[in-house]
Write a structure and sequence with these properties.
The complex is a heterodimer of chains A (327) and B (298). Chain A folds into 4 domains: 78 residues, Arc Repressor Mutant, subunit A (Orthogonal Bundle), CATH 1.10.10; 41 residues, no CATH class; 87 residues, SH3 type barrels, CATH 2.30.30; 75 residues, Alpha-Beta Plaits, CATH 3.30.70. Chain A is 34% helix and 22% strand. Chain A has 11 helices and 12 strands. In chain A, the strands form 3 sheets. Chain A has a 5-stranded antiparallel β-sheet. In chain A, a hairpin with a 4-residue loop joins strand 6 and strand 7. Chain B has 298 residues and is an alpha+beta fold. Chain B folds into 4 domains: 67 residues, Orthogonal Bundle (Arc Repressor Mutant, subunit A); 43 residues, no CATH class; 74 residues, SH3 type barrels; 73 residues, 2-Layer Sandwich (Alpha-Beta Plaits). Chain B is built from 9 helices and 13 strands. A 5-stranded antiparallel β-sheet of chain B has the order 8-7-6-5-9. A 4-stranded antiparallel β-sheet of chain B has the order 11-12-10-13, with helices on one face. Chain B has a 3-stranded antiparallel β-sheet with strand order 1-3-2. In chain B, a hairpin with a 4-residue loop joins strand 2 and strand 3. Chain B is elongated and about 90 Å long. Classes of the chains: A alpha+beta (327), B alpha+beta (298). The interface between A and B is large, with 127 and 120 residues.
């Protein structure tokens, strides 16, 4: 190889390594305006060496690797009427990101968004996304956004599998712990994923129960398996993950007696407060009676349920059980 | 940086280096390596490999980096930003949603920017994802600042175990995450001892003067109350309420906690689903509180 004017750096001729061959193949397929046949590729792209069979296998693996990177390689032939040798190419418009402009403030927000993944499961994806967007050459303007430190704690590798399945619309199955801690196989069409109060969820249509269900990731008892083909179902056009995570409306009202200057967690939820000498009477909204019960019992002698009667009765029964089992 | 990249990962990085260097001509190798999350040695390997690539033998990429600063020419074909993968888009969308829900209410301008970026990147995908913050981003940011700048922080803290809201001046020592939550380990000046605070329970934080010296630089593990518990019903819910302090499988567990008060409240709040089987004193305390509460009902 003749290389004029190179000083200091040296282009050392080595056996072309796989990564270089992949880059060279990408360049060749991107640069071509016409289909490139395998024989053209083998003769023009550095790195294809050896017996024809070995080169064939090499090329098949390289194609798979590039496709796994999200690069679309098209296959076609010169003349569809004849059984010509097929050719390959990468269309620049498929290879290239479809984002032409971004403001510096938008880039700062994206930069902050990717920082949230530090130490969490999608960190490397977030980092490579940021690199690509920074390549647009816009300077970020950090001073224009408030000092926030968003963090997403999720190290569960199931999450990456789940988001891939959602974007591919592919059925997943997994073992899930039931309320009595029994591991049960579930299969769903995943629609969306998200986090609330520090927990991570996936929402989807349960194939056995034939209805929408919400699953918490820390209750998964196995790795998530992807099943069947991509684009296996449609996500309803009115599906919004945020709605799946919205707590059901707290439609019931309880009356609670709380000690003065105590039970702050209940007081902060009060919709009405009547103060007396030693006690206050407050009203709070709740969704499930079992949740109301444990929220009030937490405060021991500082909070008593006055109504509804059923919750008051449960409180008394629970306390009797506790006394009995600890005496 | 913990493991060696696969050839495919290296190829992906080489493809992404080209447009990045093109828009950042003259960037230092140190800065470029940091941007890509790799060591300078790895970067030099990538650049050397990239330098060997080209359309054909006479049209190689012109890459200069021996001075410690990188420039690129003649990389026309590869000078394109690769389209983002679905996972990359999803990671950004989730992060953006989290920021949108953490912003102060007077920043509608940024909310608008976020929704613009979301539709530029994801369009359809955005509605499948949703992220709400566990704690106030501004508070965590202040706590981090305090730790980095060695400054005291005045915090207002709500403790459900003590059922109290207190104000205290603390010297931050460490931030850590466990399960779903972030915690601050700090030297609390009000009690002259080390304490652990859950960050989502810090209601307000104000940065104060620099500390002269860290009162205690070693973090002490203060788990000290250990009991055996039999779970009689609602096994999943009971185990979850005991959180990360629980050891053992199924319905027979050992629980170590920072505070006896927390344990007592957790067992009573389980409403009969948990039974402490080991420590007679703890059992007695639980029975007493339950009996007193029962007396109030009657």
């Amino acid at each position: 190889m003749f290389l004029p004017g190179v000083v200091g750096q040296q282009r050392v001729l080595t056996v072309s390594r796989k990564s270089e061959r992949l880059v060279n193949l990408t360049i060749a397929l991107l640069a071509t305006k016409r289909w490139l046949t395998k024989s053209q590729i083998f003769s023009s792209v550095d790195g294809y060496e050896g017996e024809p069979d070995a080169m064939e296998r090499m090329f098949e693996r390289d194609k798979d690797d590039l496709r796994n990177l999200g690069i679309t390689i098209e296959v076609g032939s010169f003349d569809p009427l004849f059984d010509d040798e097929v050719g390959y190419r990468i269309r620049p418009e498929n290879y290239q990101a479809d984002i032409d402009s971004i403001s510096s403030r938008e880039l700062s927000l994206i930069s902050l968004a990717t920082q949230a993944w530090k130490g969490a499961v999608l960190n490397s994806s977030a980092l490579s996304a940021l690199i690509k967007l920074k390549s647009l050459g816009v300077d970020s303007d950090v001073d224009s956004i408030p000092g926030l430190a968003p963090t997403l704690h999720i190290s569960d590798s199931n999450f990456a599998t789940i988001v891939d399945a959602i974007s591919e619309r592919r059925v997943i199955s997994f073992n899930y712990l039931s309320a009595d801690l029994i591991s049960v196989i579930r299969a769903i069409e995943p629609y969306g994923a998200g986090t609330k109060n520090g927990f991570w969820y996936v929402a989807g249509r349960d194939l056995d129960r034939k209805d929408m269900r919400l699953f918490r990731l820390d209750r998964f008892d196995s790795e998530v398996k992807r099943q069947g083909k991509a684009a296996a179902y449609e996500i309803p056009s009115d599906f919004v993950m945020g709605q799946s995570l919205t707590h059901p409306e707290e439609s019931c009202t309880a009356t609670i007696k709380v000690r003065r200057d105590k039970a702050h967690a209940l007081r902060s939820r009060a919709i009405s407060i009547v103060d007396e000498e030693e006690w206050s009477t407050i009203e709070i909204k709740y969704f499930r009676e079992s949740e109301l019960l444990s929220d009030v019992l937490w405060h021991g002698e500082d909070a008593l349920i006055l109504s509804p009667q059923s919750a008051r009765d449960s409180a008394i029964t629970s306390l009797e059980m506790i006394v009995q089992s600890h005496d | 940086m913990t493991r060696k990249s696969t050839p495919t990962e290296q190829a992906a990085r080489m493809l992404d280096l080209v447009p990045y260097i093109s828009s950042h001509q003259g960037i230092s190798t140190a800065e470029l390596a940091a941007e890509f999350g790799i060591s300078v040695a790895e970067l030099l390997t990538d650049l050397n490999s990239l330098w060997m690539c080209g359309d054909n033998r006479f049209d190689l990429i012109d890459l200069q980096f021996e001075s410690g600063y990188v420039t690129i020419r003649n990389a026309h074909t590869l000078n394109r930003i690769r389209s983002l993968s679905q996972q990359e888009i999803i990671s950004v969308l989730i992060g953006l949603d989290l920021i949108a829900k953490s912003l102060p209410s007077n920043r509608e301008d940024l909310l608008l920017d976020i929704s613009k970026v979301k539709s530029k990147l994801g369009g359809e995908m955005a509605r499948m994802l949703d992220a709400s913050p566990v704690h106030d981003g501004e508070i965590l940011s202040k706590v981090r600042q305090g730790l980095e700048q060695k400054r005291k922080i005045m915090i207002t803290y709500y403790s459900p175990t003590e059922d109290r809201v207190t104000s205290r001046s603390v010297v931050p020592l460490q931030i850590f995450s466990k399960d779903e939550h972030s915690f601050l380990v700090a030297f609390c000046e009000s009690v002259s001892a080390q304490r652990t605070f859950r960050i989502d329970r810090i209601q307000e934080a104000t940065l104060q003067e620099k500390t002269l010296a860290a009162s205690s630089s070693t973090v002490v593990d203060e788990l000290r109350n250990t009991v055996e518990i039999a779970i009689l019903s609602n096994v999943r819910k009971s185990r979850e309420s005991l959180g990360s302090f629980v050891q053992g499988e199924g319905d027979r567990v050992t629980v170590s906690s920072y505070s006896a008060g927390w344990l007592l409240r957790t067992v009573i709040s389980a409403g009969g689903a948990m039974k402490v089987t080991s420590s007679p004193e703890v059992r007695q305390q639980i029975a007493t509180v339950a009996q007193k509460t029962l007396d109030l009902y009657r």
